């Protein structure tokens, strides 16, 4: 394992079944993400899944939170938001699953503690949605001085134009934006 790989983690964000099922092209992203996950594991790079989740009754959700308050009001007071991951990208026992309470992977989670404990300084990001968890996590991680890579074809958004602008104009200011097959090839060369 190279020094670069020793300090790297792959973050698979908000790819839980309830979110993935909202996207018609989700089978393609799951296949590409699974390939990236397998390559990370083969290179001994930690795979960290980040899911959004709440307790029954949504006590973490303020009525002032525009994004999540509608969901909590629409659900029964005893139902919790599902954090189940699709079988195609299911975690293995050595993987870490982080539950967050807001959009950024850092917000309301213990992600930073896990990264610090494993001496991770380089985050490879993928997830749904590009304009949600990927954008919020990238911005916060950049402010925390992480080195960043975004796997462009392992990100998805409902708005294709927003997705394109983020990947081609916004993210490159703070991250390397590459295709997953190029990242996987780099791992094979660095072995």
CATH superfamily: Isochorismatase-like
What percentage of the residues does DSSP assign to strands (E)?
A: 15-25%
Helix count equals 8
Number of domains: 1
Give the overall average pLDDT: 88
Through-space gap between termini: 6 Å
Rg to the nearest angstrom?
A: 16 Å
**Biggest sheet, open or closed, and with what strands and sense?**
6 strands, parallel
Uncertain segments are: 76-80
Account of the protein in words:
InterPro entries: Isochorismatase, Isochorismatase-like_dom, Isochorismatase-like_hydrls, Isochorismatase-like_sf. This is Cysteine hydrolase. Residues 8-182 form the Isochorismatase-like domain. This protein has one domain: Isochorismatase-like (Rossmann fold). Helix content is 40%, strand content 19%. The protein is built from 8 helices and 6 strands. It has helices spanning 3-6, 17-20, 26-42, 66-74, 111-117, 130-143, 160-170, 180-190; strands at residues 8-13, 47-52, 96-100, 122-128, 147-156, 176-178. Strands 3-2-1-4-5-6 form a 6-stranded parallel β-sheet, with helices on both faces. The protein is globular. The N and C termini lie close together (6 Å). The model is unreliable at 76-80 (pLDDT under 50).
């Amino acid at each position: 394992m190279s020094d670069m790989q020793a300090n790297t983690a792959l973050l698979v964000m908000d790819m839980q079944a309830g979110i993935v099922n909202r996207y018609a092209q989700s089978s393609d992203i799951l296949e590409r993400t699974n390939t990236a996950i397998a390559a990370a594991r083969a290179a001994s790079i930690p795979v960290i899944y980040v899911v959004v989740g709440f307790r029954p009754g949504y006590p973490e959700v303020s009525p002032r939170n525009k994004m999540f308050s509608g969901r909590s009001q629409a659900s029964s007071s005893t139902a919790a938001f599902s954090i189940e991951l699709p079988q195609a990208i299911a975690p293995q026992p050595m993987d870490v699953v982080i539950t967050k309470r807001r959009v950024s992977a850092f917000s309301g989670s213990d992600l930073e503690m896990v990264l610090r404990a494993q001496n991770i300084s380089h985050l490879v990001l993928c997830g749904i949605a590009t304009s949600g968890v990927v954008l919020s996590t990238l911005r916060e991680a950049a402010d925390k001085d992480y080195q960043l890579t975004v796997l462009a074809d392992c990100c998805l958004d409902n708005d294709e134009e927003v997705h394109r602008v983020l990947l081609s104009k916004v993210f490159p200011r703070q991250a390397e934006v590459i295709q997953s097959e190029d990242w996987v090839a780099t791992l094979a060369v660095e072995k």
